[in-house]
Amino acid sequence: MDPTAPTAPGERPPTGGAIEARIAGKAPRVHILTGAVCNNNCIFCMEEDRDGRYVVNSATTDETVRWILGQHDAFEEVCFTSGEPTTNQRLPVWVKMAKEAGARQISMMTNGRALSYDRYARLLLSAGLNKVYVSIHGHTAKLHDGLTRTPGSFEQTVGGIATIARYKRHGVALHTSTVVTKRNLPHLHDIYVFLRERGVDQVVFNVMQANGRANTFFDQLFPTYTEIAAAAEAFLQQASARERQAQAFFVDIPLCTTTRLPDHNRGYVEDYVHFEPPVAVHTDLIPAERLAERRSGPDGGLVAVRRADLDDSARHKRPECAGCRYDRVCEGVWGNYLRRYGWDEFVPVP
C-alpha cells in the first residue's frame, strides 16, 4: 500500500517513521528581520507589538546582513521575513548580497502585494531571490480581505502570485501559506484548487499559534485541532480525485491529532534562528544571565534567538505524552489553547 495515498473513511494510515524522520532530519534556516512595518493588518498576526517590531527590525543594517550572510553555510536557507519585507527599500540590495555570499536558497515571506508589480518582482528575482512564500488566507476577496482587514489586499496578492508563477520556468519556487481559522476552515478544498490552478507548487495550511492577536481573538478564530484534522482529512480525500498526491501540508498541529492524514501531508514548523539587538530580547525568552553566551554579530552587537526560545515556554506536555511515539519530535500544545479546550483531544499514540 502506498503510504502517502489517502485513506478510506475509518482506516488508519500504515505506521512508519516518515514524519518523525523528516522532523528529526530538518536543517535550520536563518531569518533576516526585514520589514519594520506591514501594509496588511491581519487579525491573527503573531507580531501584535508593532511598535516593538518597528524598533527591532529597523536595527537591521547592511552591516548586520553582511555578518549574517557570512554564516550562511550553517543554514539551509536565508529567508527575509518579519513585518512585510517588501516595505524595506534595502531588500533588493540584501537579496543581491545573499546571492554574492553564495547562499543557495534565498527566500522571502511576504503578503505578495508588491510582487503584483512586474518590474519590482523582476528586480528581486534578478538579484537572486529563488523561493517565495506568499501569505493568502482565502480564495475570495471577502474571505481574505476580512482576515487581513485590508480592502484590496486579495487582488494584489493574487496578482503577486500570478507574477511569480510566470517566472517559475527560471527556477523560482512558489509556495503559499494560509493561516487556518474558523472562517476559512470550511473552504480548504476551494482554497487549494484556487492556488494550484494559479501555479503554486506547495500549499501550506498553518494552524494558528496561540500568541499575539491569535490569542486576543482566540474565541472568534481558533478551531479545535480535532476539527482541523477532520476537515483536513475530508479535504484530502476530495483532493485525491484531482491529484494522486496533493501538495498540501498541515503545519503546527500536534501529530497525535493527525494520525488519519497521509504522512505526506503532515508538515512541521521549520527550525530557524534570527539575530536581534540585546536590548530587544525579553528576559522571559532568554534569561539575562544567559544573554552573554548568545552574543554574536559585529562587535557582539547581536543575540541569536532560536524558535525554541519563542515557543518552548508557551507550549506544554503532560506525563502521558512520554508514552507517545511522537514525543521525541512533538513540541507540545500551546498553553493558551489548553486553557480553553483542555487535554481531552490529545491521546498518546502507542
TrEMBL record:
GO MF annotation list: catalytic activity; iron-sulfur cluster binding; metal ion binding
Chain ranges of the Radical SAM core domain: 24-247
Q: Which cofactor does it need?
A: [4Fe-4S] cluster
The UniProt keyword set, sorted, is: Iron, Iron-sulfur, Metal-binding, S-adenosyl-L-methionine
Annotated CDD domains: Radical_SAM (cd01335)
Highest taxon in the source lineage: Bacteria
Q: Which InterPro entries match?
A: Aldolase_TIM, Radical_SAM_PqqE_MftC-like, rSAM, rSAM_sf
Keyword Aminoacyl-tRNA synthetase in annotation:
no
This protein is called what? Radical SAM protein HxsC4
Species name = Nannocystis pusilla
State which gene encodes it. Answer: hxsC4
